[in-house]
Design a protein that fits this description.
The chain has two domains: 10-39, no CATH class; 46-158, Endonuclease, Chain A. 42% of the residues lie in helices and 10% in strands. It has a four-stranded mixed beta sheet with strand order 1-2-3-4, sandwiched between helices. The protein is of the alpha+beta class.
Length: 165
């Protein structure tokens, strides 16, 4: 069964059967679960937007979003300095600090998914480093707890002098 794109409206979504839209995924346990999972996005998340706003305010201009570099799409890429930044969600990438518990339903699926996510993160990092890029991985909780420190670290790697405020 090929991947099925889901409708945008809640009504149309509610009328669909609770079959998985991707053959690798188990069927959602309820309509509410389906709504929550459909709302998850991969680009333009709140942590990413917060980081980009803070970088811009710190004077770090010239970054690209969704730029393909070495076959990988980092969340933020500074092409001149060859610095790639990934913003990892603590739940989706299994943050060692936050240690979210595994979801109770479909545990085998989630365990395999999180392992694949971490393996993909390592592969992307290696590809970029082999291509001469420096890679910064930022966790969602780091942005929430100390955004200024994260921005200082990235601007130092990029070579931007901080703006005095």
């Amino acid at each position: 069964m090929p991947y099925r794109k889901l409708p945008r409206s809640r009504r149309a979504l509610a009328e669909m059967p609770l079959d998985p839209t991707d053959p690798r995924n188990p069927a959602p346990s309820s309509l509410a679960t389906r709504h929550v999972m459909v709302a998850n996005v991969g680009r333009g998340t709140s942590p990413e937007l917060a980081l980009r706003r803070a970088l811009r305010a710190a004077g770090a201009r010239g970054y690209r979003v969704s730029l393909r570099a070495e076959g990988v799409r980092p969340d933020v890429a500074f092409t001149r300095a060859r610095v790639a930044v990934f913003v990892h969600g603590c739940f989706w990438h299994c943050c060692p600090t936050c240690a979210f518990p595994l979801p109770r339903s479909n545990r085998d699926f989630w365990l395999a998914k999180f392992r694949r996510n971490r393996a993909r993160d390592r592969t992307k990092r290696r590809q970029l480093e082999r291509g001469g890029w420096r890679v910064a991985e930022v966790w969602e909780h780091e942005l929430r707890d100390d955004l200024a420190r994260v921005v200082r670290t990235i601007t130092r790697q990029v070579g931007v002098k901080p703006i005095a405020r």
